[in-house]
Amino acid sequence: MTDKPRPDLNDTATAPYFEAAARHELVLPYCDRCGLVFFPPREHCPACWSRDLSWRPVSGTGTVWTFTEVHVAFYDDTWADDVPYVAAVIELDEGPRLLANIVESDTGSLAIGDRVEVTFEDRSEDLTLPMFRVVA
Amino acid sequence: MSVLDGIAIVGVAETAIGKLPGRSAISLQAEAGVAAVAAAGLAKGDIDGVFSFPGYSQAMMLHAARVAEHLGLRPELAVVTDVGGPGTHHTALLNVAAAIDAGMCTAALCTYGENGISIRRSGRGRAPGTLTGGEDFEAPYGQIAMISGYALFAQRHMHLYGTTSEQLGAVAVTSRHHASLNDNAHKREPITLADHQSSPMISSPLRRLDCSLISDAGGAFVVTSVDRARSLGVPYARVLGFGSAATHHTASQAPDLHELGGPVAAARAFDRAGLTVADVDAVYIHDACTFSVVAGVEALGLCGEGEGGPYAESGALALGSDCPVNLHGGMLSHGHAGGVFHLLDAVRQLQGSAGRRQVDGAEVVVAHGNGGVFSTFSTMVLGRDR
Predict the structure, then answer these.
(1) Which CATH number fits domain B7-124+214-232: 3.40.47.10, 3.40.50.1980, 3.30.1490.20, 1.20.272.10?
(2) Residue B84, phi-psi category: left (phi > 0), alpha (psi -120 to 50), beta (remainder)
(3) B132 lies within 8 A of chain A by CB
C-alpha cells in the first residue's frame, strides 16, 4: 500500500494551518489590512496583496457546497482501502471554501446544502487533517 | 487590426488512436507533425517554428526543442504552451501569429499527443494527479483524479438546475454515434442510454461512460499566413476570433458555475470575430467528461444557463441538427491526447474533408472548452475564407 499524499509541512506560508490542525483547531489566515478571511493560506492577501496577516480560529461549521463519492482507487493502490469515499467542497460559515472528506456520517443521503462541522484525523505522528461530519 | 487577422491553419494530421504499445509520446507527435507538413503542401525546409506541449503522461522540460531536435529542425522559435485543454493549442496559434507578425516565423508546426495508455504499462509515466496543483490541500483527501474535479461541478449543476444522469448519457451516446462515422476513432461501437446507465460509477455522479478516454495518439497542425496558405493550393481554415479566461487553478477554489470563464471566453471570441453563435455551423467542445459538453453549450449560448442538460437530451448535439457538437466523436469516443483533435476536426469541416461527418457547406466552426477543472477557458472561431 502506497502512502497517501502528504502536504508540505515545511512551507512557511501554510505550516501554521497544519500546526493548528495538530492541536485539533481550525484556523484560517486573516488580512489585517482589508479584513479578508481566505483559503488556501499564502504569504499575501489575495484581495489587497497585503502581507500583514494573522491566523484566526474559525467556527469549524459550514455547508456542503458540492461533493463526489469516489468509487475507484485511481493510479495505484493508495486509496484501495478507502473507496468509496466522499470528497466534498465545504463552504465555511466565514466564507472560504476548502476540500475535505466527509467522515463519521451516513453519506448515502448526503446532499448539497447539508450542514457540517469540522473533526480531525490524526493520519500519522506528525500530520493531522481537518475533516468534516454531517450535523444531525 | 489583430495579429490573428490573416492567420490560417493549413494542414492537419493525426496518428492512429488507441493502444499503441511501445510508442513514445515524442514519436507520436513527430509522426503527426511530418504528416501535417505534407498535408499543408509544405516541405521540411519550409518549417521555421515549432510549437508544442508534451502532454502530462510524459512531461519534460523544453519540449518544443525536443520535437525540433527529433525532426532535425533548427527553428528560431521552439515554444511550449500549457494553458490547459484547448487553450494550449489556441494560444500556440496566438504565439505563431505574433511570431509571424514580428518576422520571426513564416510557417510553424504545432504538435501534440501522448501515450496515456502505454506509458503506465511501462512504469515510466507520471499520473496527472501529481501535477494538478492540489498537492497540499486536495490530494491528501484523495482528490487526485481530474474526473473527480469534474464530478464536483456536475453534482452542483444537477443540484442547481436539475440536470440528470440520463441527460449526460445523451452526450455520451451522441459522441459515440459521431465516432461510428469516423474510421480513426478509438471507440466506434454504438452505445445506448441503457449502456450508459449501467456503466459503473467512477466518481459520482459520473459513470465510466461519462469519462473521456485515455489514448495513445498524436495530432499536429501547420500555421501560416493566409497569403501563404492561398499560394499552397490546399484548403485551409482562417482564424476569425479568439477569446480566453482564467479564474482559478484547483477545483475547490473555483467560482460558482455561472461565474466560470466559459461564457466570457466565448463572448470575447465572438465579439472579436464580429459574429454570434447563430452564425456557427458546428462546434467542438473539449469533453473531458459528458458534463463538459453541457457546460459548453451553455457557455457558447446555444441554450440558456442551466439548460444544457435538456438541450443535450433534445438531440441538438447530433449531426443533422443546426449546430452539431463534436462530430469526430470527442474525447469521449474518438480519443484523448490533450484535446487537439477538436481543433483538427474543426479545420477539416472548413476544408470540406470530414467525410461521413461533414456538415455541408460549413462556413464557421468553433472550438471551445476548458483546461484544468474549468480553470481556464478558450474559444477559437474559425472560418472558411471568403
Answers:
(1) 3.40.47.10
(2) left
(3) no
